Amino acid sequence: MGAPALRTVELKHGLSRARLLAASVAGGVFLLPIALHAQPDATPPPVLSTPISAPALRGDQIALLMQTLADAPSHGFGRDEFMPQGLDSLLRASSVADRQRGALLLKSAIVAYAKAQHGGRLPPSSFLKNWGMRPAHYDAEADFNFALVQDRLPQWLDSLAPPFDRYRGLRAALGQYRAIAARGGWSSLDTVRLDMNSNGPNVVALRQRLAAEDSQSGLDTTSAAFDDALTTAVQAFQHNVGLDATGIVDKAAIAALNVPVETRIAQIQANMERWRWVPRAWPASRIEVNIAAQEMSAFSDNALALEMRAAPGRPDDQTPILGSEVQSVVFNPPWNVPTSIATKELWPKEAAHPGYLASHGYRVIATDENGGKRIQQKFGPKSALGKMKFDFPNGYSVYLHDTPSRAAFGRTSRTISHGCVRLQRPLELANLIFQGDPDWQPDRIDAVLAKGDTIRAPLDRPMPIFLMYWTAFLDVKGRVNFRDDVYDWDQTLVSLIAAARENR
User: Is 361 a domain residue?
Assistant: First the structure.
């Protein structure tokens, strides 16, 4: 959903909204008439001799802004992150000077809040190298002043939060999990395997744990029997945390059940923050890779068209967060081995077992006259890239690709690559993104793959792609899901935000 046109116009002749909007709550001037902002193709009129003053805050506007700051925690912000101490008293003071001071403090607070809703809580220097998705610059003060002059303050405030159903779903989940925490959360379970043959107090504890998180489960919290209803509830929990839905409470299930509610709240807050980094205009047709969930989804006109398991980078070879466009697909690709991988893995294997490179389809290519060399794996049954790769411009040299190693897709944990993303069923993705292209229908793709020639096939219409790190998210049925923080990025983000607040 795009921003309202009145808030996004960049005027001709080098005059932007930010330069025009010099007004503040305390008063200011506009050198050009406001109507020009709604007419991006208009020729700027002469400078007016009488400046236009920004209006002072009305009582209803003050009340609306104060309510917005009071509601900030529902968006995952700290309870007093934006509300200056004593602000309410200043705004209610009998002294005009105190009320004016309160109005200025209120303006500063709401500008800080607006900036934070657009991803401005962290300075750019705080972002990790692999956090390649960065929030766009946002001039919160200019937009606030503009909303005041246009008397569109409610509309502007409504536009600040990320305009996505999945963000709104996380906001609702945050309220639910905070309510659970207020009721005392849940107790940890003993590390005892439970299944349909189980009976006793550990089963009662399991029922109480599941009911604490899902009050709509309808579970009898007093029964000591592991029955069909409990099996169904366990399966639902396992699905929501990315485990195989066996209905058996094994070691992995117990570990997930014993994650404290406070950790779940922090996960939700971290993921709400990441939604503030993404472009506000989310393309209707796109590819999404959830690094933490180790899954890929493709959407057509905002409808889920394809999903599959994926294998992203290991914790020491992290797949970056980024946005780009798939511009081409390479069929039967060779693999130009990165120097780091060759140095750490392949050259030592060749030294220990001479002939290893040749037996795995690698060849050594001279790069200069001084003995420089690199390794390339030619296309074949052992090729690390499998039968195809999906290229998109990025500063990390990562891509999506096939793989001859299929066993990993049967496991829950699949963070095994060097940073690129392996796909479970890449041919289905290729057929989807070339849908409608007469040159690359499924039979042509099959023929090229069978022949074995290396061919780069450009997309007539590049497909937007987003590699994101969602450890708390809503699935297509609207259920809140959680995944392990495999890169420890949730805790890092929470810590960085806390440090930034301390430094303000």
Answer: yes
366 forms beta bridges with: 373
**CA-to-CA distance for 70 and 298, rounded, in angstroms?**
38
Residue 314 DSSP SS3:
coil
pLDDT 10s digits, 105-129: 999 999 999 999 999 999 999 999 9
Q: Which residues pair with 331 in a beta bridge?
A: 388, 455
Residue 457, token pair as written in the block: 């096939």
Q: Within this chain, do residues 373 and 385 fall inside the same structural domain, yes or no?
A: no
Residue 260, both tokens: 């404290």
109 domain-assigned: yes
Per residue, the 3-state secondary structure of 139-206, as one string, reads: CHHHHHHHHHHCCCHHHHHHHCCCCCHHHHHHHHHHHHHHHHHHCCCCCCCCCCCECCCCECHHHHHH
Same domain, 448 and 419: yes
Strands 303-311, 322-331: pairing kind: unpaired
The answer to whether 286 and 298 are in contact (CB under 8 A) is yes
Packed helices 201-213 and 228-240: angle between N→C axes, nearest 10 degrees = 50
The dihedral of CA 136, 286, 386, 484: what is its sign? positive
Asked if 45 and 132 sit in the same domain, the reply is yes
Boundaries of domain holding 387:
283-333+380-470
Angstrom distance (rounded) from CA 469 to CA 423 = 17
Residues 425 and 394 in one domain: yes
* Distance of alpha carbon 347 from alpha carbon 341, whole angstroms: 9
Question: What is residue 14's predicted lDDT score, i.e. its pLDDT?
Answer: 34
157 and 175, same structural domain? no
pLDDT tens digit sequence for 22-56: 333 333 332 323 222 233 333 344 444 444 345 78
Identify the DSSP state of 313.
B
Section 260-288 average pLDDT:
96
Amino acid, single-letter form, for residue 42: A
The 10 Å CB-count burial string (b at 16+, else e) for 16-50 is ebeebbebbbeeeebebeeebbeeeeeeeeeeeee
Q: Per residue in 382-409, is it b (16+ CB within 10 Å) or e — as a string?
A: ebbbbbbbbbbebebebbbbbbeeeebb
Give me the amino acid identity at 259.
V
CATH of the domain at 462: 2.40.440.10
Instruction: Tally the residues of the chain.
Output: 504
Q: How many domains does one find in the chain?
A: 4
Task: Report d(CA 312, CA 192) in Å as an integer.
Answer: 32
Q: In this structure, what CATH number is given to the domain that contains residue 204?
A: 1.10.101.10
Q: Does 227 share its domain with 82?
A: no
Q: Hey, which bits of 285-358 come out as E strands? A: 286-290, 295-300, 303-311, 322-331, 335-336
12 and 154: one domain? yes
Residue 85 counted as domain residue: yes
132 shares a domain with 198? no
pLDDT value of residue 54: 56
